[in-house]
Amino acid sequence: MSRRTRNAVEVKDAAQMLASEHKPVSTSTVYRLIHKGELEAFKLTDGRTGKILIYEDSIEAFKTRRAVAVPYDRRRILELLAAP
User: What is this structure's pTM?
Assistant: First the structure.
């Protein structure tokens, strides 16, 4: 296994890593995230077929970016907007 592919997973494994206990993630969602640039991926060509591999680091970074929820507090937002 090369250094490039050591920390990479296939699309179906990435979907399982991104899925939560109550909300599954489809492979088409993973492809959409790759297309939008949210996940860093590359194509591994072996013969005529190509496999898309996603770096585990980008999956973990995506999960931490999406997991941080900002509570919606209208009063606090208005206070911040009114502050000089």
Answer: 0.68
